[in-house]
Amino acid sequence: MTQTIFHNARLFDGTSLSAEQSVVFEGEQVNRVLMQGARPSGAMEIDLGGDILFAGFVDLQVNGGDGLMFNAAPDLGTLRRMAAAHHRLGTTMFLPTLISDRPEITMAAIEASITAVDAAVPGVAGLHLEGPHLSLTRKGAHDGAHIRPMRDDDLAIYIDAARALPCLMVTLAPESATEAQVAALTRAGVLVALGHTDADYDTCLRYFAAGARSVTHLFNAMSQLGSRAPGLVGAALATGTVSAGLIADGIHVHPQVMQAAWRAKTGPCGIYLVSDAMAVAGSGLQEFELDGRRITRKNGALTLADGTLAGADLDLARAVQVMVENVGIPLVDALRAATSTPAALIGRSYTLPPLSRMQRLDPKTWTVQPVMGPHRPASTL
């Protein structure tokens, strides 16, 4: 069987990051790790120059890519293009995310995601419905016309979707859903996240007790941490059974605030990185539309005409870079936050893939590419 040996490689397995060493693959699988400089006879040799071998990023909030928004065309073709675009950016597992929309669009997104999973579209791990059961006060870039309370028929639809998908994540606000509904979703296997809410600290704790296990884009579109009112931010940081997504572009949240949150977060559940990527991801697009509203790409941010942030111009390699260079988080911790931490939240293991699906991260330029040959999309981690 063909042997391939990577010299000057650092191996990240989802938990730890090795020092530079030689990694030997027997065919498609890792065979052994050798002392740096060891040279088995007959092996194909590749010098990685200190780059990191890993299984790719895991992103639980991906709204679009390759010039397309999932909302605009919630079908299999869109998901295939989104998957390919984000794989080029190093993401090998993701949740396509639908922003608050009409009921028929929500149904189309559910059906498209089920079809994509059944067709083994590379990287599609389920679906994230961000809304429409949010707070108008904290709607952010969501169209207020679509925001509404959760009804019994909505609940039934989500429970049915959870049976057909490996993961269904639903972001909701206590203002638009009851604790009983959250408990019913949780029993059905839905990953409930709180977000886009002005709910107070005690209310958030009750919804965590009912089953909510995550918080969507920490600090953004939620009740803030104050001296007398801890809000959702305080509830998320204080609750060890709750994870928190973070848009680490240095724009949505100041690096010093991210550092404080990282230090303050109670475990065992932690902070994980999300891109909140929009149509521009993996493309040169400078503007696009969401519900007929123009969103402009400028200086690393995506904004509506009134300046409201609308998703992020971000990929997870850049998010890891910001966490390391601007926030001061150790590289191995930042990598966990972009890989094994979100994978665990959606019930997926993060293991080293076959060689043909291994990724290579250059921490000097923060670029990612497949290790071997031309682009070959990964099917699973």
Could you explain the architecture of this structure?
The protein is 27% helix and 24% strand. The protein is α/β, with parallel strands linked by helices and 381 residues long. It has two domains: 3-54 and 353-370, Urease, subunit C, domain 1 (Roll); 57-345, TIM Barrel (Alpha-Beta Barrel). The strands form four sheets. An eight-stranded parallel sheet has the order 6-9-10-11-12-13-14-15. The chain contains ten helices and 20 strands.
Features of the shown structure:
TIM Barrel; 27% helix; Urease, subunit C, domain 1; 2 domains; seven-stranded mixed β-sheet; 381 residues; eight-stranded parallel β-sheet; disordered C terminus; globular; alpha/beta
Can you summarize this structure?
The protein has 381 residues and is α/β, with parallel strands linked by helices. 27% of the residues lie in helices and 24% in strands.
CATH architecture of the largest domain: Alpha-Beta Barrel
CATH class of the largest domain: Alpha Beta
Report the helical percentage.
Answer: 25-40%
Number of strands: 20
Could you tell me the radius of gyration in angstroms?
21 Å
Mean of all residue-level pLDDT scores: 94
Element order: H for helix, E for strand: EEEEEEEEHEHEHEHEHEHEHEEEEHHHEE
Strand count, sense and closure of the main sheet?
A: 8 strands, parallel
